[in-house]
User: Fold this.
Amino acid sequence: MPTKKISTSQLAKLKSLEVKQLFNELKTVGYINRANELWLLTDLGQQFGGEYREHKKFGRYIVWPENLLIDLSSTSKKFLSATQIGERFKLNAKKVNQLFNELGWIDRSQNGWQATNSGLSIGAQQREDLDSKTTYVVWHDSVVKNLRFKQTILEFLGHDAEAHSTDKSLSNFRQKFEAKHRTLDGHYVRSKGELIIDNWLYMNGIVHAYNRQLPIRTDMLSDFYLPSGKVYLQYWGDDKGETEQNLRNEIRSVYQEHDFELIEVYPSDIEKLDEVLPIKLRHFGIKAY
Assistant:
C-alpha cells in the first residue's frame, strides 16, 4: 500500500516540530529551496517522495511521505562555490560554470552568473559580491552527487557515460529507430525530418546538441537542445508518420513539470522551416543567419 503523503504543516505536527523548524530542516538537507518568497521542491526532495499539490484557494504546496527521512548528518550545511565543486572533479571554476550553463542551471547576466529556475530546483543560491557588484551562484552540497551533473562531467571528460544510463524512460521509444541519417555536421539522426532540422540549424549557425539527456533523474532524451536560448526542440514525427497524441502529451508534461522551454515542430512544418523556425527561435533570443 502506498505511503500516505501529507502537507509540511501536518508532517511537522507528526514529528512534534514547529513548522518553521521543519522548513529549515528540509532546506538544510536540500529537499526544498527558497526563491522569490516561495518554497520550491528540489530534485533531491522529489527523490525522497516530495510532490506538488494544488489547492483551489491557496495554490501550490508540497506534500511528503509520512515516514520522510530527514538526515541532517547527510549534509555539510555549507554551500559550495564553483571553485570548490571543481576541486572535487579536477576541473577549474570556469569549466564548472560552463557545464552548469550547458545544463541550463545558470545563465550569464550583465554582472556575472544568474541561477535559473532549473538551477534553483537543484539547490542553487544567488549571491552578490558587494564590492565588485558581480553576481555568482553557490550550490547545496548535494549537487556533487547529482546524477545528471556527474554524467555531464563524464561525457565532457570523454569517459564512457553509457553505463550510467538506465533503460527505463520515455526515451525508450526512440531506441526502436536506428540513427542512420548523417547530417552535414556529422550527427546521425533517426529520421529525414530530424536530418532537415539539424541541417537547417547548422546552416543558420545555431549551436545545437542532438539526443541530449534532460537534466533530470528520469532518463529522457530531447531531440535537440539549443544552449544559447536554453530551449529544447522536439520534432513530433519519424519516417513512419506523426508521433501519436498520448505520447506527445506525456513528453510535454515532463517539460512543463520542470519548467523547460520547448519548441515544437511537426512533420507539416518541415517544408517551411524558413518561415516557422526563425519566429519560434526569436522568442528565445536566437537569431538565424
About this structure: The two ends are 57 Å apart (CA to CA). The chain has ten helices and 17 strands. Residues 225 and 232 are 4 Å apart (CA to CA). The chain has three domains: 5-73, 82-150, 165-282.
